[in-house]
Design a protein that fits this description.
Layout: H1 11-27, H2 33-42, H3 54-64
Helix pairs in contact: 1-3
């Protein structure tokens, strides 16, 4: 889903981010949460996770894990 905003600011948007993360995590049950998220930044992305926006990060996770 494309979003014109990149940061989850409402409860509904935050729930969507968490649900997408939960779905990915359950599809990869052998990964710890830190591994699931950290793997995205271990390849040379040049992106600092501290500054990555919520929807960009979620999309990056889904792309990395083949969604």
């Amino acid at each position: 889903m494309k979003h014109t905003f990149k940061r989850a600011t409402t409860d509904k948007q935050k729930r969507e981010i968490i649900e997408r993360l939960y779905k990915l995590w359950t599809e990869h049950p052998n990964l710890r949460l830190g591994q699931l998220m950290g793997n995205v930044y271990h390849y040379p992305s040049g992106i600092d996770p501290y500054f990555d926006e919520d929807y960009d990060f979620t999309q990056r996770l889904e792309d990395y894990y083949g969604k």
